[in-house]
Amino acid sequence: MLSVRELIGDLDVALLAGEAQLDAPVRWVHISELPDPTPWLSGGELLLTTGMALESEDDQRAYVQRLADHGLAGLGVGTGFRHERVP
Questions:
Q1: Cα–Cα distance for residue pair 79/4, rounded to 1 Å
Q2: Are 29 and 12 spatial neighbours (Cβ–Cβ below 8 Å)?
Q3: pLDDT by residue (tens digit) across 40-55?
């Protein structure tokens, strides 16, 4: 399995948090715009989203906490759709 570090190494992305977990293995990459994708995730995923369903700061914090509690390897947020920058 590739680690988060290996996966993003050659990409034009900015790491905003989670440096301590860069060597976490990525079991799968999943894309979702659901407010709670955790019923379809089993841990170790790199989740990609544009954050379309994340309107308020409280929504955003709860979303990230749910994903962290579920054991995801990482979260990638695409900008330029709903959010001009990562919220």
A1: 20
A2: no
A3: 999 999 999 999 988 8
Q: Would you tell me how many other CB atoms lie within 10 Å of the CB of residue 26?
A: 19
Question: How many angstroms from the chain centroid is the CA of residue 8?
Answer: 12
Longest distance between any two alpha carbons in the chain, whole Å: 35
Residues near 7 by beta carbon (within 8 Å), at least 6 away in sequence: 26, 46
Task: Examine the pLDDT at 76 and tell me if it is beyond 90.
Answer: yes
- 3-state SS, the chain, equals CCEHHHHHCCCCCCCCCCHHHCCCECCEEEECCCCCCHHHCCCCEEEEECCCCCCCHHHHHHHHHHHHHCCCCEEEECCCCCCCCCC
Q: How confident is the model at residue 71 (pLDDT cuts 50, 70, 90)?
A: very high
